[in-house]
Amino acid sequence: MRHLVVAGSATGRAHWLAERPNQDAFRVLSGDWGAVAVVCDGCGSEPMSGIGA
Asked: Is the separation of the CB atoms in 42 and 25 below 8 Å?
């Protein structure tokens, strides 16, 4: 079985204006067995939330 996986993330306006990095993360794995995706939304008010995501 073939899979087409498309993923993306964008830095929000507040983060862009404050020159803070995007704090979201994702990972997608796929194979003959199927596909799995994990999405993490970092908490922008915390200084290390990008690492947690």
From this structure: yes
